Description:
The chain has helices at 44-53, 71-80, 101-117, 146-167, 184-193, 205-210, 215-221, 236-245, 249-254, 268-276, 298-311; strands at residues 22-26, 58-60, 84-92, 122-127, 170-173, 200-204, 226-231, 233-234, 258-259, 282-286. With 314 residues, the protein is α/β, with parallel strands linked by helices. It has a single domain (22-311), classed as Divalent-metal-dependent TIM barrel enzymes (TIM Barrel, Alpha-Beta Barrel), CATH 3.20.20. The strands form 2 sheets. It has an 8-stranded parallel β-sheet. A two-stranded antiparallel ribbon has the order 8-9. The longest helix has 22 residues, at 146-167. The two termini are 21 Å apart. The model is unreliable at 1-11 (pLDDT under 50).
Amino acid sequence: MTGTPAPSPSTPSASGAPLDRIRVGSAPDSWGVWFPDDPQQVPWQRFLDEVAQAGYSWIELGPYGYLPTDPARLTDEVTARGLQVSAGTVFTSLHRGPDVWDETWAHVSRVAELTRAMGAAHLVVIPSFWRDDKTAELIEPAELTNEQWRHLARGTERLAREVGEKYGLRIAVHPHADTHIDTEEHVVRFLDATDSDLVNLCLDTGHYAYCGGDSVELIERYGERIDYLHLKQVDPEILADVVREGTPFGPAVRQGVMCEPPRGVPELEPVLTAAQNLGVDLFAIVEQDMYPCPPDQPFPIAERTRRFLRGCGA
């Protein structure tokens, strides 16, 4: 297996343009998986079976420990279903400074080792939440100090260097609701503070819209910094209520704020077209946050979403 997207036949989009640089996949998140082990989540075998049956060939690892962590076993499991791994995912708190480095690296190195062993080339890096995603309890202030921004930028650059040198992976930092890299202002500040040769983005269309951003504008303005995509939509009516009430992200997800395309925003075909116009190969991994959810809910949504994306040309 390889983490480099392989060529595939061009499929015309609704507008007639082929999206032949986009490689679509899905992730455990689309099956309601947020944690390594949780009785409310579907077993990993069912996720692998259903993601393949829904028509996807690329997956992410999801939370470390949800899928088998033995590379030989995981290779056998994904290969048997015609799947390949595009990326692993880690959470970090690098804004807290050098004191958290050892703990961060212990976690990152485990995930990076498995990611490399599965032939993937990307490590998605999500900043830690400033309020708990289960209880909504405030963990720390929502705004960083100038010193914390410096810690975040320098720590992320160090992480990129170490991951690249030791594992041959590229990091893609994921702006995310209820983290310190969320709004357009914060995303741009982070990009301007980091070395473009080291640090790039995983643009999640749903999270960016949730936080008021325009994905197409970001791609057109900072295209050289977009290294990976997560495809997701937000229900604008539920989002308006979330914003009005100041609802934390976890409860907002339980209200259905992240919805099945094409029912929400942003429109995905313009996003995919903008990404295609960058002229580079990009993974576009479907993620529809819906933790927790009934076990029979994800599969039909995944099938419909794959069909919808094919209609967009991806």
